[in-house]
């Protein structure tokens, strides 16, 4: 794919473009079509290049954590990287929390980070920082361009690295002078190595385990949870009776009617041990053995029950769908697998709004092919099974445990799939980390409905205080866990960002508001005040 770059006046002795233009053209030629940006002075030549090179959609984000979270959501839905445009060390570190979530989601991502010009580094200017150190701490691939003539090649390698299975974070640091000085023409696209091939021995061992008569669970992660891989898993479950599970916070799960009904593991370690305690074998497909999110006094962190054998069919970098296809044939699986029927839950009785009531309404009214993003934690996780028999949809939870992910994630998912309704299930505490995403949703006219659980508390931290046996009940301790005094007003916060909003305190009010939102295009927010 080629991209014509206009000649730069006064630069005829060179190739007709500067480093920033060669970079943007290489990104576009490599299939990167969206840039989630929060630029500064060092990135102005990249910004200018967006006017000169066709094919890149710029999306302004008012905080770097929105840009990186949106790139995560875009990648989860497309399988392709977007790029972010970030400003120096502080800008990159502002985005690191959601880079962490994207890394845990195995989302391909290319971060372009502007830096001081190479001849300016010696002055140790106020914004100077150890950008290379920051990037290396969280990226799979990092490069700092040292010459404008290598920028295009560096960009092609960055996209190639991001696409390396199962998906990686690549960070390209762009000193300002490498952006403004004359450069080479764009570099051609570089394809990544294909996913690894699962050995026949691994398939045979899994087939023998499934035929042994021992109670078996499969723990799935990655692209085997949607598309062909999931269909093969459904066939295997139909043939062998094995149970299908996924991580609590898996990157993307196909759910609802027509899916095989994969069950996310519970959040708490004791509950996971109890759930898996009925099984004698745990077969890993693109997943790691389950572990607790945190250590607690007198609680086990390793969550494979004693006496349960661990087997691995495929590792994350290997071709899980192909391995499942081979395993389905090995066990004589039928052509069609398990599929749950469309049987949404009944709507809750009228009265004050509860967390369960909210999700009952959502599951009952969810349109086909919606995308549900979830960071409700205490308000949503106990009730997520209600979505299993709703209309077919994709479910995207926070993956790395760093809150402030879901409003940006839903933003990126909506840009990736503009014809699908996006429903963000979000807690009030988590939403305050990245509420600027609402502004981007308004500006880009995205079809995103945010259900904001307003419990006026970091409810999960109240639970954590008890679990670490540190509960004191004191006023000062409680003051760090509640969100009152004053209460957050999400209707006004949302409207201030350009997103229409309404508050619901009863089941009827919420059901009416959610029904309207499902039948109206554009961004909106429902503040669900729950008891």
TrEMBL record:
Residues 18-122 form the Thiamine pyrophosphate enzyme N-terminal TPP-binding domain. CDD domains: TPP_BFDC (cd02002), TPP_PYR_POX_like (cd07035). It comes from the Bacteria. This is Acetolactate synthase large subunit IlvX. InterPro entries: THDP-binding, Thiamin_PyroP_enz_TPP-bd_dom, TPP_enz, TPP_enzyme_TPP-bd. Keywords: Thiamine pyrophosphate, Transferase. It is an enzyme of class 2 (transferase). The gene is ilvX. The lineage of its organism: Bacteria, Pseudomonadati, Thermodesulfobacteriota, Desulfovibrionia, Desulfovibrionales. GO terms for biological process: small molecule metabolic process. GO terms for molecular function: acetolactate synthase activity; flavin adenine dinucleotide binding; thiamine pyrophosphate binding. Residues 392-527 form the Thiamine pyrophosphate enzyme TPP-binding domain. Pfam families: TPP_enzyme_C (PF02775), TPP_enzyme_N (PF02776). NCBIfam families: PRK07586.1. Its EC number is 2.2.1.6. Belongs to the TPP enzyme family.
């Amino acid at each position: 794919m080629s991209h014509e770059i206009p000649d730069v006046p006064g630069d005829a002795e060179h190739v007709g473009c500067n480093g920033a233009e060669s970079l943007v053209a290489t990104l576009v030629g490599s299939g990167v079509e969206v840039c989630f940006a929060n630029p500064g002075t060092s990135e102005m030549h990249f910004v200018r290049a967006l006017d000169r090179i066709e094919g890149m959609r710029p999306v302004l984000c008012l905080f770097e954590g929105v840009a990186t979270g949106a790139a995560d959501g875009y990648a989860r839905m497309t399988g392709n990287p977007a790029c972010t445009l970030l400003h120096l060390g502080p800008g990159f570190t502002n985005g690191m929390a959601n880079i962490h979530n994207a890394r845990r989601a195995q989302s391909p991502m290319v971060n372009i980070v502007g830096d001081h010009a190479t001849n300016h580094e010696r002055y140790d200017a106020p914004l100077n920082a150890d950008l290379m150190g920051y990037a290396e701490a969280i990226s799979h691939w990092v490069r700092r361009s040292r010459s404008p003539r290598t920028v295009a090649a560096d960009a092609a390698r960055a996209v190639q690295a991001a696409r390396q299975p199962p998906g990686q974070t690549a960070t390209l640091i762009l000193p300002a002078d490498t952006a403004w000085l004359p450069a080479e023409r764009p570099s051609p696209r570089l394809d990544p190595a294909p996913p690894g091939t699962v050995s026949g021995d691994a398939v045979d061992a899994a087939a023998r385990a499934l035929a042994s008569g021992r109670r078996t669970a499969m723990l799935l992660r990655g692209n085997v949870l949607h598309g062909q891989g999931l269909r093969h898993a459904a066939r295997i479950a139909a043939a062998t009776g094995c149970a299908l599970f996924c991580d609590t916070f898996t990157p993307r799960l196909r759910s609802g009617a027509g899916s095989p009904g994969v069950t996310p593991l519970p959040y708490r370690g004791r509950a996971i041990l109890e759930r898996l305690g009925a099984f004698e074998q745990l077969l890993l497909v693109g997943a790691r053995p389950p572990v607790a999110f945190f250590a607690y006094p007198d609680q086990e962190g390793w969550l494979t029950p004693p006496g349960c054998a661990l087997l691995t069919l495929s590792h994350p970098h290997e071709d899980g769908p192909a391995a499942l296809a081979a395993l389905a044939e090995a066990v004589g699986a039928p052509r069609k697998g398990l599929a749950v029927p469309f049987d949404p839950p009944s709507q809750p009785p009228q009265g004050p709004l509860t967390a369960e009531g909210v999700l009952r309404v959502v599951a009952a009214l969810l349109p086909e092919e919606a995308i549900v993003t979830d960071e409700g934690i205490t308000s949503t996780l106990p009730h997520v099974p209600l979505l299993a028999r709703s209309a077919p949809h994709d479910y995207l939870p926070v993956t790395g445990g760093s809150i402030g992910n879901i409003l940006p994630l839903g933003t990126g998912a909506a840009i990736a799939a503009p014809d699908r309704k996006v429903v963000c299930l979000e807690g009030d505490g988590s939403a305050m980390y990245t509420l600027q995403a609402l502004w981007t949703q308004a500006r880009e006219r995205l079809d995103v409905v945010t259900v904001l659980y307003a419990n006026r508390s970091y409810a999960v931290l109240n639970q954590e205080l008890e679990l670490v046996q540190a509960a004191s009940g004191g006023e000062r301790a409680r003051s760090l866990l509640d969100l009152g005094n004053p209460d957050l007003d999400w209707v006004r916060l949302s409207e201030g960002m350009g997103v229409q909003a309404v508050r619901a305190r009863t089941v009827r009010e919420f059901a009416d508001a959610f029904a309207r939102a499902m039948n109206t295009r554009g961004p909106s927010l429902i503040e669900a005040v729950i008891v």
